[in-house]
UniProtKB/TrEMBL annotation:
The lineage of its organism: Bacteria, Pseudomonadati, Pseudomonadota, Alphaproteobacteria, Acetobacterales. Keywords: Monooxygenase, Oxidoreductase. GO terms for molecular function: monooxygenase activity. Pfam families: ABM (PF03992). The keyword Oxidoreductase applies. This is Antibiotic biosynthesis monooxygenase. The keyword Repressor does not apply. Residues 2-96 form the ABM domain. PROSITE patterns: ABM (PS51725). It comes from the Bacteria.
Length: 109
């Protein structure tokens, strides 16, 4: 499993617009082989920004890399530069290979 994250420092007062931008976009993720799950995370407020992260889970790194080279990726990210005013600097990418997963399982009946 592979987790891809982008961190965004959103300018104070731009939180609602940033969230709406993400909620209204056509992500195309559901069409991509190897995609598992997406989360948009809102983090702590700082003096000059609010931290957000996009968090996608993939079956493996190859699936994620395939997404980044796909037409679906280009479609999902077209116009992304138009929202630069909402955040301070470019997003910071972080990619993680999953080493351990602990899940919650119901006790046997």
């Amino acid at each position: 499993m592979f987790i891809a994250m982008n961190r965004f420092q959103v300018a104070p007062g731009s939180e609602a617009e940033f969230e709406q931008l993400w909620m209204s976009r056509e992500s195309q993720l559901h069409t991509v082989p190897g995609f598992v799950e997406f989360h948009l995370l809102r983090g702590p407020e700082r003096e000059n920004h609010v931290l957000y992260a996009s968090h996608t889970i993939w079956q493996d790194r190859q699936s994620f890399e395939g997404w980044t080279r796909s037409e679906a990726f280009r479609m999902a990210h077209r116009g992304a530069g138009q929202s630069k005013v909402l955040y301070l600097g470019p997003p910071q990418f972080e990619g993680f290979e999953v080493i351990q997963t602990v899940g919650h399982s119901a006790p046997a009946a």
